[in-house]
Amino acid sequence: MGRIGVVTFPGTLDDRDAARAVRLAGAEAVALWHADSDLKGVDAVVLPGGFSYGDYLRAGAISSHAPIVREIVDAAAKGLPVLGICNGFQVLTEAHLLPGSMIKNDHLRFICREQVLVVENADTPWTREYAAGERITVPLKNQDGQYVADEHTLDELEGEGRVVFRYDGWNPNGSRRNIAGVCNAAGNVVGLMPHPEHAVEPGFGPDGAKGPRTGTDGLRVFTSVLTSLVGAA
Amino acid sequence: MGRVVVDVMPKPEILDPQGKAVAGSLPRLGFGQFVGVRQGKRFELEVEGDVTQEHLDAAREAGVQVLSNPVIEDVVAVYADTAAVQA
């Protein structure tokens, strides 16, 4: 059974949901504390959403210098699968593991909705149980969700297939090129603004094909990484 | 006590949604002469004694490394706040 670390910063909101998603996927969830320098030998790491350090300075900025993130940066360079969701995505950009940044939504309002995404890259350790081009529905909830990067970086991301998720239809926050999630050059580090960990269990997710709240499209993010670990072992 | 000021602004090519919202509110309050607003951040870094060139250099470095995100922001000014000297 894989062991997946879930990091908690002061102000993290979704660590319990992320840990639950990990367990529902069949792995052991290992709690990691921001001030520790010990990754506890985990096989992969999830940086969950919320408002770490109150989003002071910039979203994810102070967290990116936390002791546990320094360890994650080192381990990611050696291939550790790392997933950043929402605020976790912001932490990964501030830690320079992922390109670009997030600024306030173009319409300036907090947004919470069931969001359809296109899985553009189904080759990362976090997306391999999806089909490329598949449409999935997961919750989206953010204030600072507008993904920005310079045109050169955006072209590079597109050219190298590093846009992992894209908003389908309406762009909910003004993100460049409808980008909802990207990965690093090696593919092991993935960040996305929407929340797959909130769509993992019938009765609590978005509306799905089988009726209200039956959507579990997010679960395969977590089962994907388990499959990847088995494949790598 | 000396004080170094670091001013950080969103990059010109980055849309500044907050500034846009502020710009939208000004005409309603009678400030129709302002046709655009960009909103940035001012940091005040306090040091022991007078501000030295080393302090200014360190403040600029901190500005680039921590106080701003070079993807979306520029450090536009680093200077000693002389009014802070007698404080």
Automatic annotation (TrEMBL), chain A:
Chain coiled-coil ranges: none
Keyword Transmembrane on entry: no
Metabolic or biological pathway: Purine metabolism; IMP biosynthesis via de novo pathway; 5-amino-1-(5-phospho-D-ribosyl)imidazole from N(2)-formyl-N(1)-(5-phospho-D-ribosyl)glycinamide: step 1/2
KW Isomerase (keyword) present: no
CDD domains: GATase1_FGAR_AT (cd01740)
Active site: 86, 195, 197
Signal peptide interval: none
Keywords: ATP-binding, Cytoplasm, Glutamine amidotransferase, Hydrolase, Ligase, Nucleotide-binding, Purine biosynthesis
Entry's localization field: Cytoplasm
The reaction(s) this protein catalyses: L-glutamine + H2O = L-glutamate + NH4(+); N(2)-formyl-N(1)-(5-phospho-beta-D-ribosyl)glycinamide + L-glutamine + ATP + H2O = 2-formamido-N(1)-(5-O-phospho-beta-D-ribosyl)acetamidine + L-glutamate + ADP + phosphate + H(+)
E.C. number(s) listed in UniProt: 6.3.5.3, 3.5.1.2
SUPFAM superfamilies noted in UniProt: Class I glutamine amidotransferase-like
InterPro entries per record: Class_I_gatase-like, PRibForGlyAmidine_synth_PurQ
Chief location category: cytoplasm
Subunit structure: Part of the FGAM synthase complex composed of 1 PurL, 1 PurQ and 2 PurS subunits.
Record function comment: Part of the phosphoribosylformylglycinamidine synthase complex involved in the purines biosynthetic pathway. Catalyzes the ATP-dependent conversion of formylglycinamide ribonucleotide (FGAR) and glutamine to yield formylglycinamidine ribonucleotide (FGAM) and glutamate. The FGAM synthase complex is composed of three subunits. PurQ produces an ammonia molecule by converting glutamine to glutamate. PurL transfers the ammonia molecule to FGAR to form FGAM in an ATP-dependent manner.
NCBIfam families: FGAM_synth_I (TIGR01737), PRK03619.1 (NF002957)
The protein's name in its UniProt record: Phosphoribosylformylglycinamidine synthase subunit PurQ
Natural source organism: Cellulomonas alba
UniProtKB/TrEMBL annotation, chain B:
Quaternary structure note: Part of the FGAM synthase complex composed of 1 PurL, 1 PurQ and 2 PurS subunits.
Entry function: Part of the phosphoribosylformylglycinamidine synthase complex involved in the purines biosynthetic pathway. Catalyzes the ATP-dependent conversion of formylglycinamide ribonucleotide (FGAR) and glutamine to yield formylglycinamidine ribonucleotide (FGAM) and glutamate. The FGAM synthase complex is composed of three subunits. PurQ produces an ammonia molecule by converting glutamine to glutamate. PurL transfers the ammonia molecule to FGAR to form FGAM in an ATP-dependent manner.
Species the sequence originates in: Cellulomonas alba
Keyword Chaperone: no
Keyword Transcription part of the UniProt annotation: no
Principal cellular location given in the protein's record: cytoplasm
InterPro entries from the UniProt entry: PurS (IPR003850), PurS-like_sf (IPR036604)
Pathway named in the protein's UniProt entry: Purine metabolism; IMP biosynthesis via de novo pathway; 5-amino-1-(5-phospho-D-ribosyl)imidazole from N(2)-formyl-N(1)-(5-phospho-D-ribosyl)glycinamide: step 1/2
Domain of life of the native organism: Bacteria
Pfam families per the UniProt record, alphabetical: PurS (PF02700)
Enzyme class name: ligase
Keywords: ATP-binding, Cytoplasm, Ligase, Nucleotide-binding, Purine biosynthesis
Catalytic activity: N(2)-formyl-N(1)-(5-phospho-beta-D-ribosyl)glycinamide + L-glutamine + ATP + H2O = 2-formamido-N(1)-(5-O-phospho-beta-D-ribosyl)acetamidine + L-glutamate + ADP + phosphate + H(+)
Name of the protein this chain belongs to: Phosphoribosylformylglycinamidine synthase subunit PurS
Organism lineage: Bacteria, Bacillati, Actinomycetota, Actinomycetes, Micrococcales
Compartments, record wording: Cytoplasm
E.C. number: 6.3.5.3
Record-stated family: Belongs to the PurS family.
